[in-house]
Amino acid sequence: MNTPSLGAPTDDTPISPLAALGIAVLAISTSAILVRWSSAPSLIKAFYRVAFTVGLLAPVALARYRDALSTFSRRDLVAATGAGVALAAHFASWFESLNHTTVAASVTLVQSQPLFVAVGAWALLDERVGRRTAAGIAVALVGMVLMSVSDLLAPSSAPRPLFGNALAVVGAVTAAAYVLTGRSVRSRVSLVPYVVVVYSVCAATLLVVAVGNGDPLTGYPLREWVLFLAMAVGPGIFGHTVINWALAHLESSVVSVSLLGEPLGSTILALFLFGEIPTVPLVAGGAIVLFGIYVTAS
Question: How far is CA 31 from CA 55, 74, 238, 262, 266, in A?
Answer without folding.
Answer: 19, 33, 11, 9, 8
